[in-house]
Amino acid sequence: MLDLGLAIGHHLIVFALFAILVIELALVRPGMTVATVVRMARIDIWYGILAAAIVLVGFNRAVFAAKGWAYYSHNAFFWAKIGTFVMVALLSVPPTIRYVAWRRADTPPSDGELRRVKLFLYAELVLFAFLPIFAAAMARGYGEF
Fold first, then answer.
1. What residues have CB less than 8 Å from 70, skipping those under 6 apart?
2. Where do the structural domains in the chain lie, given as residue ranges?
3. Shortest CA distance to 68 belongs to which of 57, 60, 56?
């Protein structure tokens, strides 16, 4: 049951994180108001919470679930997935910094600032797409070393 519970939790959190990313992409657009900036900063807090939850549940799954750490630690796709997740996390930092700065300034962002943030969000989205690809390969035993 532990394996099933961790797998379900992990997948639900990943889908929720993806939803937050899509919401951020939809909200970051020309004409953003100060109210939207405040809402975006609150939504971005959930992005961070969910990302931390994925790491916590994911590593518990890797260590305590059915396949165990020996399976995951010797799999290139596992490490590709971890590396990709770290890159997504790093790409999420500049938008977060901008949201906080915009909220503190209490003024809407310029179109140029919005374009730069949108580039980071799109990069996150592209890399995010590789996570289920790596997970599927890993689950089927590809990438063992």
1. none
2. 2-139
3. 60
With H, G, I as helix, E, B as strand and everything else as coil, classify residue 28: coil
Tens of pLDDT, residue by residue, the chain (145 residues): 999 999 999 999 999 999 999 999 999 999 999 999 999 999 999 999 999 999 999 999 999 988 999 999 999 999 999 999 999 999 999 999 999 999 999 989 999 999 999 999 999 999 999 999 999 999 999 999 9
Query: Number of helices and strands (H, E) in the chain?
Result: 6, 0
Distance CA 134, CA 65 (A): 18
Cβ pair 74, 132 in contact under 8 A: no
φ and ψ at residue 140, rounded to 5 degrees = -100, 10
State the Cα–Cα distance between residues 88 and 48, nearest whole angstrom: 12
Give me the residue label for tokens 């994911």: 58
Q: Please state whether the predicted TM-score (pTM) of the whole model is above 0.90.
A: yes
